[in-house]
């Protein structure tokens, strides 16, 4: 189905919602309102049916097989790599590595590039708004190499403190690890400025695109980032599949992250020759069907149009923000000028878990907790927040139902 929309941002949400079977159900006697897209997105029928068809008709292991099923599976797997390449604007399929998700992609960079290039007293700049997956691997690496993780602070409105970034960036900086979209605040850091400044001091930049890639157009070549990571399950694709983009010049000089089948060219007891890119970093049987499902999901989003999606979700976020500000005692956590898709908040005297439980009783799914971003919570002296996170199938009606349910919950808690 063609979901292209005009004017900009006016999506045919009824047609889109019809593509998502999971939305057609009731939770606790209420129609499901799914507003937890920051944790994971639901899957369109196109993806579900493609996965089923692959397993029923084309499934086999990829590469080196001469029989028909292996050739079919290999073709679909490598076509998926090309789809990813086009979707994020990479120069070559050699720069697209299939992983299990953003977390493994970041760990790959930390263990391969980091282990080779980081030395004692070097520094890794990481923002305070990062997901734990973009903090802990660097802490482990720094401890191993006697280097240092340097946090970039965030301002009271949730924006990255760019003055502090420039002050802390130095000749000691080897890598800057930064989110494109904060999962806890919705903040969009100024990546162009960050990447340009980092390159001037000889540092490389890893961008965590897990939250952003489903919500805005991405072009890694224009962005000029050195590494870019994202997960399939947050972009309407399957779980267990992810992507690491890395510049080919970097990958060529990075040692393998894992060893085993498919990452080798020749093995003997006198030595091993590694496979060419991108296979050098894809040890073992990959998530073959997941890669194909990811490609179907990316094509689905491309058909709708990423600019349309961005505008649609911006309209929803603006509306939801206005509704939130009508509630006495509600405080939005993260009000930076440049935001997308995320509305986090606390309400005076109300525990986020209690609120989430009462919303679930009314069929509304939101996320409550620290969102795997404890430094953000510490920055704002919080234990947890309630978080509404938006997707392509969400509507103004969803927002209205959510805030009506919040008000009912507050009546109960009062």
In words, what does this structure look like?
- The chain is α/β, with parallel strands linked by helices and 414 residues long.
- It has two domains: 13-43 and 305-413, Aspartate Aminotransferase, domain 1; 49-302, Type I PLP-dependent aspartate aminotransferase-like (Major domain) (Aspartate Aminotransferase, domain 2), CATH 3.40.640.10.
- It has helices spanning 13-18, 45-58, 68-88, 102-117, 136-145, 162-168, 191-200, 220-223, 248-251, 288-304, 306-325, 352-361, 374-379, 396-413; strands at 26-27, 30-31, 33-34, 96-99, 123-127, 148-152, 173-179, 204-208, 227-231, 242-246, 264-268, 271-274, 330-332, 342-347, 364-365, 367-369, 385-389.
- The strands form five sheets. A seven-stranded mixed sheet has the order 4-10-9-8-7-5-6, sandwiched between helices.
- Helix 5 links the parallel strand 5 and strand 6 (148-152).
- Helix 3 crosses helix 10, helix 4 packs parallel to helix 5 (136-145) and helix 12 (352-361) crosses helix 14.
- The radius of gyration is 22 Å and the shape is globular.
- The model has no long low-confidence stretch (mean pLDDT 96).
- Strand share of the residues? 15-25%
Mean pLDDT: 96
Q: What class would the helix/strand composition place it in? A: alpha/beta
Give the C-alpha Rg: 22 Å
Counted beta strands: 17
Biggest sheet: strands side by side, in what order?
4-10-9-8-7-5-6
